[in-house]
Specification:
The protein is an all-alpha fold and 196 residues long. It has one domain. The protein has 8 helices and no strands.
Length: 196
């Protein structure tokens, strides 16, 4: 995919999320390609996190994380994987039909877009923390809207309300599960769920 194609697809994700979801699902990527893309977006998001802390060390935009980028990367990878599993499984009781691979490709694409969002935050951080905050807030709201549409298309829930309920159940279940796991390991999650 070219840079032009990437940014065109990124714009279409905002303006026509259902069409993009259908396109991504139609790719039928192999499990190996999904794992490679998963690793890539985790690494790139971790890099953006590191740059953000360098340019805005006192910023509250991404919450109080512990340790450095390496720990963040591990926690992000676990959180993204947990989100994929949670959205897949939580859709099943409501008649959802999406496979793990279907949800994975959609979540990975959203994480790729988050890399772009974080790059904007890195550029804006030294100039204005207020503008950075606006970008993060707007990106979060738009991201939720896109993901609800993605879930509706993938799970064929038949409506955004039901898809939104699937997302709510998935996020609550994921956060509860991760909080138990991380607390047993003596780790504070800080703003990881918000970053995902």
């Amino acid at each position: 995919m070219t840079f032009d194609g990437f940014f065109r697809l990124a714009v279409n994700t905002v303006t026509a999320p259902r069409d993009v979801a259908a396109l991504l699902l139609s790719l039928n990527l192999s499990r190996q390609a999904l794992w490679l893309a998963f690793a890539l977006v985790v690494v790139l998001n971790t890099l953006m996190f590191g740059l953000t802390t360098l340019t805005s060390p006192a910023s509250d935009l991404i919450g109080p994380f512990l340790g450095g980028p390496a720990i963040f990367g591990v926690m992000l990878g676990v959180s993204v994987a947990a989100l994929i599993v949670a959205v897949t499984l939580c859709g099943r009781p409501l008649g959802g039909v999406a496979r793990f691979d279907d949800i994975a490709v959609l979540v990975i694409w959203l994480q790729a877009l988050r890399v772009v969002l974080q790059a904007v935050v890195v550029l804006l951080g030294p100039v204005s923390l207020f503008l950075s905050g606006v970008v993060v807030s707007a990106g979060s709201v738009i991201g939720i809207w896109i993901f609800v549409n993605f879930i509706d298309v993938a799970h064929e829930t038949g409506g955004l309300l039901k898809a939104g309920f699937v997302l709510l159940l998935a996020v609550v279940g994921m956060m509860l599960g991760l909080s138990v796991i991380f607390s047993l390991l003596g780790v504070q999650t800080g703003g990881i769920p918000g970053y995902v």
